[in-house]
Amino acid sequence: xxxxxxxxxxxxxxxxxxxKPPLQYWLTALxxxxxxxxxxxxxxxxxxxxxxxxxxxxxxxxxLWGFEAGLRALLYTSASALxxxxxxxxxxxxxxxxxxxxxxxCFLLAQARxxxxxxxxxxxxxxxxxxxxxxxxxx
Length: 139
Hints:
Elements: E1 11-12, E2 15-16, H1 23-35, H2 39-42, H3 44-65, H4 67-78, H5 81-86, H6 93-112, H7 118-126, H8 129-132
Antiparallel strand pairs: 1-2
Helix pairs in contact: 3-4, 3-6, 6-7
């Protein structure tokens, strides 16, 4: 995307790659354009999505069940080998995991705060664009 200039259709080695949602490819192309194509920059958004996932897990645990539960959830998740490995790979899994986690977290907060659930419900809707197009009822 960053070298070809086509930001609408994702390309992989000059071939149209229409099987996956484009958010991952947009973020990777922006990182390449802003920081270069070095190895450390390739996994920048995946590492950031991993840290945002850990932060979301901690804050959601604290909000729903208290500080100790949030800390335990944070420690258990950060000690998971698969979670750490996916944070270093150039795959869709970590960003998808973060958007699903954010959407689920907003849903749980909306259920806990039924009197003022509108902001949480809007967050639940907004966190889902990574996977929404793949799961639409039209398919």
